[in-house]
Design goal:
The protein is an alpha/beta fold and 215 residues long. It is built from six helices and nine strands; from the N terminus they run H-E-E-E-H-E-H-E-H-E-E-E-H-E-H. The chain has a single domain, classed as Rhodanese-like domain (Oxidized Rhodanese, domain 1, 3-Layer(aba) Sandwich), CATH 3.40.250.10. It has a five-stranded parallel sheet with strand order 3-9-8-4-5, with helices on both faces. 32% of the residues are buried.
Length: 215
């Protein structure tokens, strides 16, 4: 993780701690941050860690080995200027979204069958196979880019000046779904500094006992 990202997260979460209602929890997110309230659709959801200190990992993410390819370990840095981020940074972006910042979109890139098992509160599902640039239906890709990501097409070229900052994730460090979409977006000119990659994805989210929501 890049130093500037860590420092930014530290500063921002000091502010979070002051604005988040104190709760008598045994398992906090950080020493000063018990929970974070975010909006998932039109409902408020409190993100916190599982308080049962004997709780064990969700079986869906208990496997240590999956066939590679396609389930190969992803690099720490996916592309130049695309920040690889952790849970605190994801929470920061979710909080900003919930506070009304429409320039950010946290994207669960997994297919709906996986999302049905639980996703990060506040995330929007855009299945990777729908946004698989060069392979998916061009009309579907264009629709996603214009209606959800904030890009505009002019004279056959994409204008990303008003495009959203994307925080993308999938199942974990062995999952190639969000990396595939990120690489595709970069190929058509989406600004790298407007893309953040949560490499740990759902596997790390579940490992830390952070709660999920189902559609």
């Amino acid at each position: 993780m890049k130093l500037r990202t860590v420092l930014a997260a530290s500063t921002l979460f000091t502010t979070f701690a002051l604005s988040t209602a104190a709760a008598a929890l045994d398992v906090n997110i950080t020493a000063d941050l018990p929970s974070v309230d975010v909006m998932h659709g039109d409902q408020k959801v409190t993100i916190m860690r599982n308080q049962d200190q004997k709780n064990t990992l969700n079986p869906d993410f208990a496997k240590t080995s999956r066939k590679c390819p396609p389930f190969c370990i992803q690099p720490g840095e996916l592309a130049t200027s695309v920040d690889t981020i952790g849970e605190l940074e994801v929470l920061h972006y979710l909080k900003k979204m919930s506070d009304g910042d429409k320039s950010i979109l946290v994207i669960d890139s997994r297919t709906p069958d996986w999302v049905a098992k639980g996703t990060i509160p506040g995330a929007v599902n855009i299945p990777w196979d729908k946004l698989n640039i060069g392979k998916s239906d061009p009309i579907t890709v264009q629709d996603i880019l214009e209606k959800q990501l904030g890009a505009k097409q002019q004279d056959g070229f994409w204008d990303f000046s008003g495009a959203k900052t994307l925080v993308m994730f999938c199942n974990g460090p062995w999952c190639g779904q969000s990396p595939t979409n990120i690489k595709g977006l970069l190929k058509i000119g989406y600004p790298a500094d407007k893309i953040k990659w949560y490499r740990g994805g759902m596997q790390d989210w579940e490992v830390l006992g952070l709660n999920t929501v189902k559609p």
